[in-house]
């Protein structure tokens, strides 16, 4: 994959939703914006892969709810629903217009990998470059659910579900294995009630709870293999100053450079609080325009001009994002 500049890791598309949240004083109001940020996958994507097909090659190994019939298709589809939700927002991969492909295997073939012939057939059938394959999965859960009684809180307890799934990614034409990963997680469903029966009834049905864990693990595997977008919130400050109002309008229209120039007029204002807020807004503009180093400098200047909790929190967010970018760029060089 081509090595991206910091701009690709921070922002190339913007979603603007301005909401007045609170009145800080008779002058200042806080406004919330949403920005789309790029989240790299855990593994480096293969640039030769574009179209992806999903394949169910799984055998279940674990505990099925005693009160229900065989739920294999329910659980496996939950995995693929979670995976599809992530891949549908992928920067690179595109799901082919085909249902999840089901390839059977016997218990004696539990750890059998797909053959090159099977992969070639999938390539011809779906016109995909690669297959994301659920190979096996296992779920276990607390049975029976243990409830504890407390005089102050009544009955309470947790339904604990352990979920493990084995995934592989293959190139269809060559049979090359791109990834093999065993994904494990434990999820807790808490419930409480004034009586034993009330508390127990507040737990989700086992089938539904297991399906939720499968969906979550499907999402997690999607984030492992695919670059995606996520929405994050940022804050801007506005007041009755005409320049601040005009800058806010410009920002809403994506004209951040012009908005930044208006805020800069106030960075040395005798009202240090107003100057601090102008510096803070400039920091947000710098992040949106792809300059994390400058954003950190302006957020720090906001704090030192007039110490405030908003700048402190924002500096922490920017430092984490900057460390993340350095880590990703370092891994790209290896």
Walkthrough of the structure:
With 334 residues, the protein is α/β, with parallel strands linked by helices. The chain folds into two domains: 6-38 and 235-333, Serine Threonine Protein Phosphatase 5, Tetratricopeptide repeat (Alpha Horseshoe); 51-226, Double Stranded RNA Binding Domain (2-Layer Sandwich). The chain has ten helices and ten strands. It has helices at residues 6-10, 72-87, 116-126, 196-201, 206-225, 242-252, 256-264, 272-288, 292-305, 309-333, and strands spanning 13-23, 29-39, 51-60, 94-95, 101-102, 130-141, 147-150, 154-171, 177-193, 228-238. The strands form two sheets. Strands 3, 4, 5, 6, 7, 8 and 9 form a seven-stranded mixed sheet that branches. A three-stranded antiparallel sheet has the order 1-2-10. α6 (242-252) packs antiparallel against α7 (256-264) and α8 (272-288) runs antiparallel to α9. The two termini are 12 Å apart.
Question: What are the main properties of this structure?
Answer:
334 residues, alpha/beta, Serine Threonine Protein Phosphatase 5, Tetratricopeptide repeat, Double Stranded RNA Binding Domain, 7-stranded mixed β-sheet, disordered N terminus
CATH domain topology of the largest domain:
Double Stranded RNA Binding Domain
Separation of the first and last Cα atoms: 12 Å
Helix content: 40-55%
Strand content: 25-35%
* Oligomeric grouping of the chains: single chain
């Amino acid at each position: 994959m081509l090595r991206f500049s910091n701009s690709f890791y921070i922002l190339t598309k913007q979603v603007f939703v301005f909401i007045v949240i609170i009145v800080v004083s008779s002058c200042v109001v806080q406004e919330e914006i949403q920005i789309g940020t790029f989240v790299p996958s855990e593994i480096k994507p293969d640039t030769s892969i574009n179209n992806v097909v999903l394949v169910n090659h799984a055998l279940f190994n674990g505990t099925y709810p005693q009160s229900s019939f065989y739920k294999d298709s329910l659980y496996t589809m939950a995995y693929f629903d979670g995976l599809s939700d992530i891949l549908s927002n992928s920067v690179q991969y595109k799901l082919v217009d085909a249902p999840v492909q089901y390839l059977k295997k016997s218990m004696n073939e539990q750890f059998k990998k797909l053959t090159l012939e099977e992969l070639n057939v999938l390539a011809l059938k779906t016109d995909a470059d690669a297959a994301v394959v659920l190979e096996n999965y296992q779920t276990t859960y607390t049975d029976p659910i243990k409830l504890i009684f407390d005089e102050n809180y009544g009955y309470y307890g947790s339904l604990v579900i352990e979920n493990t799934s084995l995934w592989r990614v293959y190139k269809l034409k060559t049979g090359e294995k791109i990834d093999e990963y065993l994904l494990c997680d434990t999820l807790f469903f808490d419930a409480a009630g004034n009586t034993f029966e009330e508390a127990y009834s507040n737990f989700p049905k086992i089938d539904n709870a297991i399906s939720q864990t499968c969906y979550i693990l499907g999402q997690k595997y999607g984030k492992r293999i695919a670059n995606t977008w996520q929405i994050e919130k940022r804050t801007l400050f506005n007041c009755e100053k005409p320049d601040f109002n005009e800058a806010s309008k410009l920002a809403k229209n994506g004209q951040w450079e012009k908005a930044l120039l208006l805020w800069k007029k106030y960075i040395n204002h005798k009202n240090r609080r107003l100057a601090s807020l102008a510096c803070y807004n400039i920091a947000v503009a710098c992040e949106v325009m792809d300059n994390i180093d400058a954003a950190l400098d302006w957020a720090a200047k906001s704090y030192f001009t007039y110490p405030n909790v908003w700048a402190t929190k924002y500096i922490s967010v920017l430092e984490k994002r900057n460390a993340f970018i350095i880590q990703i760029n370092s891994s790209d060089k290896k």
